[in-house]
Amino acid sequence: MTSDTSSLIRYAMVTGAGSGIGRACAQALMGAGYRVALVGRRAEALEQTAQSHPGRGVVMAADVARPEAVAALFERVRVEFGRLDLLFNNAGMSAPAVPIDELSFEQWQAVVDVNLSGSFLCAQAAFKLMKTQSPRGGRIINNGSISAHAPRPNSAPYTATKHAITGLTKSLALDGRAHGIACGQIDIGNALTDMAYKMTQGVPQANGQIAVEPTMDVRHVAEALLHMAALPLSANVLNMTVMATSMPFVGRG
User: Fold this and answer.
1) Per-residue model confidence as pLDDT tens digits over 134-165
2) Which distant-in-sequence residues (6+ apart) come within 8 Å of 218 by Cβ?
3) Which of 14, 66, 185, 246 could bridge 26 with an S-S bond, Cβ 3.0-4.6 Å?
4) Domains of the chain
5) pLDDT tier at 1 (50, 70, 90 boundaries)?
6) Catalytic residue (choose from 11, 34, 158, 197)
């Protein structure tokens, strides 16, 4: 037995790591022994995420919607980490909740650029690295959201991109087989983050009413992600839904 544990270190990237679900998952991965590339547009917020586990997180500010920024990001990962074992495609945004005929094309495009194109660009770069690294392979987990199944009122851009993420996940899972790359999706419902706080105050429902919705602790999302990440590459969770038990998702109305 050797005392060298360097081969046991695993390397991950979390996009949107500066707040909410991304921060919780990045901190859980760091706590589990990963070195984590913390990706987002706000370096200061990423620094705050890194503070929970000194030496485990590496701040890598980048806009995942820009191809040149993603290329530079993954080159830095290759140089500093040498490999990537896990990519959590989490970065996302939504458009104002207005009727579709009042939505500007620019608002639509901004959501598509981050949620869909950003996930594609990062997955594409991860494939390139994971196919050539030694040992070969790795895992990609996409944040699909409950909106990958059903919309909220006035959410066409966000819902359309999250439905598209499901197609991306399945394509990556298929295309990754030959290269030891597993891909799965975690669909999250009402994790209590700053962004989801409005759920506790009341949000529009399909029947036109405003209602308070149940929420869950974001740590349950992080625990679910850790479970998916800990599987050997011979096993994969293709899709997992983690949601507040009583949120208005399953059932009518």
Assistant:
1) 999 999 999 999 999 999 999 999 999 999 99
2) 20, 21, 24, 191, 192, 193
3) 14
4) 6-243 (3.40.50.720)
5) very low
6) 158
